[in-house]
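ingest -> fold -> write
write: protein_1
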Amino acid sequence: MSSERYKIVIDTNVLLSSIPKKSEYRWLIDKIVDDEIDVFITNDILMEYEEVLEKKANRIIKNLTIDFLLNAENVYKIFSYHKLNIMTTDPDDNKFIDCAYTSGADFIISHDKHFNILENIPFPRIKVISIEDFKKLFS
């Protein structure tokens, strides 16, 4: 079991899939609640989370999730002054890259294949891993 404290940025779909109590990915939310990992968000990321939760979850879940993210001591809301514009295939995902770069995050947790472009870019070095691979770091 890893004793390292990871700094992460969570893609919206990963967050969404980890919220349900019976989800196989619920462990990610539990790690955040248990203060075992640090999460970084920006206003743009928070707005996307809220927008997607508004469409895909009920108002109570949306409000609880957003309130938790805004109040948890290990969730850091930062201002990302970098606009790297690396992601051309899905420019909306640049906010996650910018946040990861600004915060010095260890990983972006995502299933989005658009992020594979980062494997071929020497700078900035931003690692993207799936939630399954992230879980392996704790076992």
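write: protein_2
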Amino acid sequence: MSVTYAVPGVYVEERNARALSIQSGETAVPVFIGHFNSIDGTPLKGCVPVQSWLAFTKRFGASDTLTIDVSNNEVKNKMPHLGSYSVRLYFENGGGPCYVLHLSGQDETQLNTMAEAIEQCPDITLLVWCERTEKDVEVYQKLGTLLGASATSGGNRGTFLLVDAQATDVQNKDFIVPQVTQPTQVATYFPALATGYVREVSDVGVTVTGITEEQEDLTKVSMPDYKLENLTLAMLKRAIALWESEAKREEKAGQAAKTNAETLKKIKKELSAKNLAAEKKIDDFTDVQKNTMTEAGLSDNDLNKLTLTTLQNKIDFFQKEGKKFKEAAEKSNEKAKYWQTTYNTCHAAAQQQIAGPVIVRASAAMAGVIARVDRERGVWKAPANVALVGVTELISIPKGGVSQPIRLDDAINEKLVDKKVNAIRTFRGQGVMVWGACTMAEPSKTAWRYISVRRLFNTVERDAHATLRTMVFEPNNAPTWEAVRSALDHYLFALWRKGALQGETPAQAYFVQIGLGVTMTQDDIDNGRMIIKAGLAAVRPAEFIVLQLTQDMVPS
């Protein structure tokens, strides 16, 4: 409907128009898979988002677990898990928002559940396995199924896996590298990282056994999740707090009953002075006496039928109640003190038994490095030649051997390069440095040799896919093609301006093609297919810098 303007001037009309724009999404959102203990003891299901280390500590305790048998003071089933320490190292190295996924076991059912949970979070881009178990191969194989093409939508999922290599012997003569189906989407690192962290066991990670049937009733308080076979120190601590609260309530109730009895005894003494018969109904209460007895627990019905005899019965009742609550409070306090002593003993034993160095997988720290490099420099920058934070020493953990410190030299580094493993090295004056930026790609697939190239394409595909979903069911004609071409062109032009693509001009850096006779036939259009072709000239890191020096001799 047109508007008639009467007064000369400038009028601005806002019209709704469909505009297509590709937005850059998060490029480094890892999920840490391992053992995690919820502080409140609630079961952990699916991927749990974590925004910061502070948020993590409010929700999770230390990952270590053990069992204490109180019948013979025996500590067993010590499991020094690495989940919480891996997340800490990630944040210390610049990590941002992430997910944690609790995995209580590594059987086939658990691994299938793991894969399903990760697929429910499409913003996850990095996969990190925290623990060190006999099932590492099975875990990596299952994570490998989340790489590459999606079974539902096709195309690249955009997820990248970080894994760790292991020496075959104490001499570090050879290295074992996890085998996955999509090596171009995998980066491997060596060695492991020793940290300055102190191992600790959270109350929810300590299971208490050996409680006898006679002792069991001491912990039967209002805890719906209580079970004798899975009693933890966290539950025991809650039981102690409940017993202490119960003791205070009983003490308060006993004191109130005692006060009521004393009040009624005083009133009876006043009434007895009138020489009333014990059975005679008392009708001449004063208002003060009525209010006092009402406050002491007598109802209006009690007052209407009150005699000296019934009054004495009330006094006896409150005296018994006071004694009963007093005894109950003493028992509750005894229970709280008994279990507090048990708690203190178990807690101290747990902290002593789990003591030891915390050695974390290098992949956990690398997730933080990648997140920081992406945020500060861009996803097209290689996550290498970067110092690691929170690392005190490099550790080699050979298969079937004992962990030992290691200092990587060029000879060992050459072996790692042959295995397509990125080295973590120590350099004087620089600290612990990431000294590699390659994927596990086969030699024939040189296009995907570098992590930065592979992840740049992952990012472009994810961003384009997310935006182009809005064009589904739009008319497959020239205006739509131009909107798509323009959106992709603007997106890639912005990457070129930032230095992500090589070429002196946009035409040298990328191309976008779409249209009838260009990327589609009439049959494609008739069958509802819109085909877009895009090419990118990604920059590659200078892995080998050769400095050639010549000395000019002055003629004699």
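write: annotation protein_2
Residues 474-555 form one domain.
The radius of gyration is 36 Å.
pipeline exit 0
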